[in-house]
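Morning!

This is the sequence you dropped in the shared folder:
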Amino acid sequence: MRDYDKNKLLELMVAIAPGRGIAEHESDDETVFLKNFLPVPDYRRVLELDALLILGGRGVGKTELFRLLGNRDGRKTLVENMQIRALPSLDSTIWIAGYGRTKQKGKIFPTPETVEAGMKNADRIDWRTFWIGLMLGVMFQEKHEALNSICDGVPEAIRTALTNQLPLLSDWLPLARQNLEKLNYALDRLDSELIETNRWLFVIYDELDRLVLSYLELAAPIRELLAFWLDRWRRWERIRPKIFLRTDLFREDFLGFPDASKLQGYQISLEWKAPWLYQLLVKRLANSGQEMTDYLSDVPGLISEGHPSLGILPKLDESNFELLMEKMVGKYMGSNPGRGIHIVGFLTTLKMLEVEWHHAHF
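The structure's back. Tokens below.
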């Protein structure tokens, strides 16, 4: 077994979770992003046509998956790697972000303070107009040939404002409210054309907890977003949403949403199992640098050959993860078996490695 540069290994270990592992700190570089991304079995369910609402607690990967679905190559990689059959051919699908950043520095939507101030006394129709306006604004900016037809039924003044000034809520919301009938008609026509051309439009949402500044002010916009899509689910056939939402924001006592029970057939919950966390750790380590790849290769069967986009993938074998943990931090909690076997969880391991790294350099 070869000798390794311990400081180099520790440096690579610390770098696999930028910004303490918060999704917003992940790289906008598509190559780096995909090599850090781990497809897990639950993602197949997310891509089913009837999955409207995707629930999950903090840190289960909602934002990472949202970003992946907002990226053409990312979608293709996920579908091909997981051999997903429940989704129509990607060539016949269009994906837009109804809200949320597919890039860290995205500035497409109004700021939280703009939304909270501009929607202070908003009623249900105001919120529905808000969500319809955002959706249309992104469609206009997308300039996809299959979406061109919606331009014909939308007054030019609204179309211009939504295309060029979507963050300026006060500029387009009053116009959209006055012409809500025409906006809905344009979307109805779009759905009909998607049926005729055998295409699908998916509207994805994330970061809804950042829509406004106040937690208590989140209930109304989220409630109306869910109610809007429940209504349109029966009206539209080829325009479908995928709403990523924190579990605590879907409480009935918080939303006060009488039809929330109707969403049960259209919702799934994302949860991570311990072996998947170890897979993610190993995947990020294996793709961090050649020195680390060689180090991991000392554990037979731990990693496999590289994927063109996803990079090196770890095998799902818990016994190999145990061997890796033993290699990294030792077998026992002390110097001998008297203190017990060292069972180290994913987060604990990373914390120990981070502390060791700092001790080595300061």
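Headline: DSSP finds 16 helices and seven strands in the chain.

More detail when I'm at my desk.
O.
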